[in-house]
Amino acid sequence: MPAGATLARTVHTMSAPACFRINSPAVVYQVFDDEVVIVDLGSGTYYSVDGVAADVWTRIEGATTDDIVDGLTARYRMPRRDIEAAVLPFLDALRSEGLIVPGQGDAGEDAQGSRRWTGDSASSPPRFDVPTLRKYSDMQELLLLDPIHDVDEVGWPTRPEGGPESSGEPRE
Question: SS3 helix, strand, coil % of the chain, rounded to 5?
Fold first, then answer.
């Protein structure tokens, strides 16, 4: 898949787990304003989500599909079936990429409450765009290097044996 490709699903096949969790420690992420950058440390692939997709990502940990859809329905003030139709394929993409996995138990009322939208009911809701997962593989080689452990006697990171472009000779 080319760098920057958008993952799209037309058929929803995911059965709803009790709740979701981020697949850590294999998956790490950082929130930057209204964008989330997600890195799969096992494959070196990274992803970007923003807008509604970032909103979904920040609701994932310990949440069920219903929790996520209910929270988005309140925030965006749209019919639940429309939100669900847009969110289920996105959750399926996150799961098929190995970024989220079924969780244990439930996050409880405190976590669920923190996901509820508390905006002014008189103000207009934010715009709802179908959430998309953008996938990038252009930095896989760099992200797969382990600069802490894969260091030669000179102190530079080295590629594991059999890795891409591994010649065994130090670079100048």
Answer: 25, 20, 55
